[in-house]
Design goal:
By secondary structure, this protein is mainly alpha-helical. The chain has helices at about 5-15, 40-45, 50-65, 80-90, 95-110, 115-125, 130-135, 145-155, 175-190, and strands spanning about 35-40, 75, 160-165, 170. Pfam families: DSBA.
Length: about 190
């Protein structure tokens, strides 16, 4: 779910294309516990030996961006994160994007848990999301919107991040910025 490569590709292509970024939920493991499980163990159980290859490829992408990929910490139910991301998008798409970046940096490079309410509130405050604590205090807030988006968008997704460009071009998993730039160019040719 890390977005730095996408940001780098967008920055290098802003003079050629117009961008509007919207984030939609995808819950990789709907049955994951809210209290979280150790990432390394979860990935090994879910993907088997392939998890080592996925981890190595992801770490390579992170290194190319000057970041250290961290599989320490917990993973688990991401519903709270999706609720606050949806809420941020109702305030402004740029705030939503900044929040997703902040959550991803914490989760992928600092061992933060995406289901930790305090971490989510800290990230929301950092990017200027107003009323985040009040919003999350009611567990029903945003659920209808998140579930509607899940039904609408996640049918063919098998991994994250998952990008759809101009409603057609699709990219899944961590990618180098050059891959995004080529996808932008190909999508522009198709329109």
């Amino acid at each position: 779910m890390h977005i730095k490569p996408n940001n780098k590709a967008i920055a290098s292509s802003k003079d050629q294309f117009d961008f509007e970024i919207r984030w939609h939920p995808f819950i990789l493991n709907p049955s994951a516990p809210t209290e979280g499980v150790v990432k390394e163990k979860f990935y090994m159980e879910k993907y088997g030996p392939q998890s080592l290859r996925i981890e190595a490829r992801t770490a390579e992408v992170f290194r190319s961006l000057g970041l250290d990929y961290d599989v320490k910490g917990l993973t688990g139910n991401s519903l709270e994160g999706h609720r606050i991301i949806d809420y941020a998008g109702r305030q402004a798409l740029d705030k939503q994007h900044a929040l997703v970046e902040e959550i991803c940096l914490g989760y992928f490079t600092k061992g933060k848990y995406i289901g930790d309410r305090e971490f989510l509130l800290e990230a929301a405050k950092k990017v200027g999301i107003e009323g985040a604590e009040e919003f999350l205090n009611d567990p029903k807030n945003g659920l209808q919107e998140v579930y509607a988006d899940l039904e609408k968008y996640s049918g063919s997704i098998s991994g994250v991040p998952f990008y759809v460009i101009n409603g057609k071009r699709k990219l899944s998993g961590s990618q180098q910025p050059e891959v995004f730039v080529r996808a932008f160019q190909d999508a522009a040719k198709e329109n």
